[in-house]
Amino acid sequence: MPGFERFGEEERKEVNEVLETGILMRYGFDGARKGIWKAKELEAAISDKLNVKYVQLTSSGTAALTTAMAALGIGAGDEVIMPCFTFVASFEAVLSAGATPVLVDIDESLTLDPAAVKAAITPHTKAIMPVHMCGAMADLDALQDICRENDLILLEDACQAIGGSYKGKYLGTIGDAGTFSFDFVKTVTCAEGGAVLTNNESVFIKSDGFSDHGHDHLGADRGADLHPFLGYNFRISELHAAVGLAQWRKLDTFLEIQRNTKKKLKASLQDIPQVSFRKIHDEAGDSATFLEIFLPDQTTAAKAAAAMKASGLPSFYYFDNNWHYFRKWDHFKNGIALSPFAPALRDYLRQYEDKTFPVSDAIINRCICMLINLNWSEEDIADKAYKLKAAIQSAI
Ligand SMILES: *Cc1c(COP(=O)(O)O)cnc(C)c1O
């Protein structure tokens, strides 16, 4: 990752086919488009590959999450349990639905701790939203059990885990709905785009309408469509879908590269006793976009992260990162929005002002993370492995 490292002839060909017809919109203009339907083709390709019945493309991963929330009926007064370690888009989508984000601890899998989820359930809980962070999965068996026992919706934020799987099923296809992001730094990218995946026909029909102003898409042309419910414009364009289609066909290659590289990087650290690795609930299903390492304590991890940065490795120390961990989400903690929240939501959000997550802190502050690039040669991989080991050893 990211997929843009492997842009080439294939992406250009798909885009040019769209440019030749001049029909940049995914709906309508049936005659003028001369049989070119890139968004539809990409939806079918995703559905085929992942063995999921329905796919609705959207303009971004955030739009996909927002669309899924609406299609699942999540809104005002509903609590959505989600991890305190994720990308900001996860809570943005909950807030945009008018629902209440209930943040809970993660465990050493860097995803939702099922015990913390259980403890957070109230009569207002409507959904659990695991985030398959950094390419690997949450404990979906445990979370599905909790959903079943408590009659809750499972919405997978699989935006960072395209192509990952859990016990033989692709991430994003296991819950009531799942979402992907194709933003510019994701495994498969089309600059901006996303997808809602579901096996539930009603969730799909609602996603299809919601992401296009509520159109039912049943009329002979757009003007003849009815609007059974309100929607917004979260449509993807044909240009974006065209890039996505070429990228999608490369997914298996990307996964193979990432998995091979990760194996080599991990092997190079085997003989350092202070190193342990992220817990992965199903190793075979890791999409291997990142390598996460735990060191014995915060001081060592911070030192190692600095050394990695100094030697030019693409690394993250999430404890100090502004985008992915609660500790630095000041705008969220302080409820700083441009327009007022509904009063009940505003009151709920106040608790985040001085909230801390000591259990997650103690995990994240020991974690260093390295991005796995797609365009590394064998020599590059050997060089990165050498530098990674040296950086860690210098910190211990
Ligand atoms: C990237 C991402 C999103 C949102 O995707 P955009 O396409 O950038 O809107 C949502 N959740 C997670 C975990 C992400 O990493």
TL;DR of this structure?
With 396 residues, the protein is of the alpha/beta class. The chain has 14 helices and 13 strands. The chain binds pyridoxal-5'-phosphate.
Total domain modules: 2
CATH T-level topology of the largest domain: Aspartate Aminotransferase, domain 2
CATH class of the largest domain: Alpha Beta
Reading the helices and strands in chain order gives: HHEHEHEHEHEEEEEHHHEEHEHHHEH
Bound molecules: pyridoxal-5'-phosphate
Helix proportion of residues, in percent? 25-40%
CATH level-four homologous superfamily name of the largest domain: Type I PLP-dependent aspartate aminotransferase-like (Major domain)
How are the strands ordered across the major sheet? 1-9-8-5-4-2-3
Radius of gyration: 21 Å
Largest sheet data: 7 strands, mixed
Active site: 186
InterPro entries: DegT/StrS_aminotransferase (IPR000653), PyrdxlP-dep_Trfase (IPR015424), PyrdxlP-dep_Trfase_major (IPR015421), PyrdxlP-dep_Trfase_small (IPR015422)
GO biological process, one term: polysaccharide biosynthetic process
Protein name: Putative aminotransferase
What does the model show?
One of its GO terms (molecular function) is transaminase activity. One of its GO terms (biological process) is polysaccharide biosynthetic process. Pfam families: DegT_DnrJ_EryC1. The protein has 396 residues and is α/β, with parallel strands linked by helices. The protein folds into two domains: 3-250, Aspartate Aminotransferase, domain 2; 252-395, Aspartate Aminotransferase, domain 1 (Alpha-Beta Complex). 38% of the residues lie in helices and 13% in strands. It contains 14 helices and 13 strands. It has helices spanning 9-21, 38-50, 61-71, 89-96, 114-120, 140-150, 201-210, 238-248, 251-267, 298-310, 330-333, 343-349, 358-364, 378-395, and strands at 54-58, 79-83, 100-104, 125-128, 153-157, 165-166, 169-170, 177-181, 194-198, 276-277, 290-294, 315-316, 367-371. The strands form three sheets. A seven-stranded mixed β-sheet has the order 1-9-8-5-4-2-3, with helices on both faces. β2 (79-83), α4 and β3 (100-104) form a beta-alpha-beta unit. The longest helix is centred in the C-terminal third of the chain and has 18 residues, at 378-395. The two termini are 29 Å apart. The model has no long low-confidence stretch (mean pLDDT 97). Pyridoxal-5'-phosphate (PLP) is lined by residues 60-62, 86-87, 89-90, 131, 157, 159-160, 181, 183, 194.
